[in-house]
Structures are given as structure tokens and as C-alpha cells.
Amino acid sequence: MALTDDEVRRLAVDILKAPTARDMQQKIGASNLANGCNYCLACNLMGDMRETPMLDRAYLGRVWGTAIHALKEMRQKAWLAEQRKADREEWDDIKRQRIAPFARRFPDAQVEKRFSLGLIPGYGRVGSTADLFLPSEGHLFDWKGSKRKDILLLIDFLHMQKGHPEGIFGRRHQDVKLSEAQYAEQMVKMEYKVTGYFAQLQSYGRGKALQGYDVKRMSIVLIARDGTGWFDNPGLDGWEDEHKKHDLYVLSFDYNPEYANFVWQRGLDIWAELQSGKPLEGFERNVNCFPCSLEVKNAQEQAVVTPIAA
């Protein structure tokens, strides 16, 4: 008997929500150490990955993020495989130019390779996986799914950090669709998010440095899920025009071993407090933490207000 439309829809949800290795992770990694919320990091160290019911319900964002990572991994590995094949065969220059320019330039590229960040006594070894590392350049990469609006807000935040007080607000008000009060709130949240990005990449860098690599630079590549890539084609119009709506944005910075050690030490300190008996609720929640803010909002909505007796 043929499936009904409802059964097909349920099948699609089952496929989309099928757990991945990342979903079943019970040990912390670089992204956990980079979490600016002490409460959430403490929960992570105790095995609670903070998958709240509200986060689980809004699952498509996580699905798109996983899909982007899987596609990038597949294509990067395909490039490397084609390069090795080209090295073994007598290919003409024209054919070589069409294949794996990335792999030809970086034959030592490491794609989705797991490595150790260090050992936390009493907890165990902490491992993580970088999306891409180029040992010859000392350059780390991380791909992140985003939205056009959030990329615009990120650009604005970075402009303000460089001393430009107004950023994009006004010029692209129709794109961000926020009041000035909402915009100011988003800038605070963006600072929290960027700090987490920075800490995560620095943790990757520390792990690679412990392996003996000379880590120099790191880049976050944000990819707009609601974009088209129209102005993100090298050599075509709009590629170099910063005023166009770009759906790929790169945020790069130098490796900072002092900051990386600070991030690692914070994890050690929180674990030590847990081992000494400090309860989870004794750790501070960050007001900009997404899981915590969802829990607070849900608790407020579920609270029953009883009238005070006269």
C-alpha cells in the first residue's frame, strides 16, 4: 500500500532528525570550551550537552549546518583524491587546471582530522575536529552556516570594533529589519557570539600547536543559508564590492597562544570546582546564552501567577 502524505512527511522528519556522531557526543570539545556560559560548560563537563526540548524542536537550523559541513568535507576530500590521481597519471596541463586547484596548492591539507586538545585530570582527554587545516601555511578554517541578516550584523559589529560608530544601520535597515533598540540588543549578542568563535578557533590552534605545528592564522567562513552566492563568484561583477549582499563572509585573525591557554585553563578551573562538590546551579548563567535564555523564557511562560489573597 502506498504511503499517505502524512506518512511521507513523518519519514522525512525521521531522516532529517536521525542522530549523527556529533549529536551523540558526550565529551566536550573546542566549541564547548569556547562557550561563554559557565553554567553550560559545567553541564557539558558533567555529560549534559544542553539539548533542551525547545532546541530539539527547532531542528532545521542544526540540519542545515550539518549538511554544509558534510558537503564541504566531501568536496575537500574529493579534491585531494583527484590530486593524488593526477600525480600518478600523465595528464595534460589543461586537464590539470580543471581539477583540484586547492589540492595542488596544499597537498598536505588535513580535512576533518581529529586531534587532542589536552588532558583534564579526572575527566579524560579532550578531542576535537577542525574543518580544515593547512600545515604548510599554519592556517585553520571553520565553516559556519549563517543567515544574510546575521552576516550583516556581524559586519556591523566588526566595523564598530574598529571605531566606526554607525556601521550598516540605516544603509541596510531594510535588510536587518530591526528597531534601534533591537539592533543595540543584537550587537551585544553578536559580541558574545564572536567571542565564542574566537575562543573555539584558538582552542583548535592550541591543539595543533601541541602536535608540533606552527600555527599562524585562522579563518571563519560564514555561509548564508538564505543566500544565492550571486556576488560571490571570483572574476565576476560584485566580487570586490563590499556594499553588495555577499553570502560568503570571511573573518580571520592571528593565533593567540596566551588567549588559547586562558580558554583551556577556564575549563580546568570549572572542572576542579565540580570535583570539589560545587553544584551546577552554583555556576553563573550568561544572559546571552541561547539555551539558558530559552529555558528562562519557557519557565516564565509556564509560571502560574496566583492572586494575592485580600
UniProtKB/TrEMBL annotation:
Protein name: Exonuclease
Native organism: Leucobacter viscericola
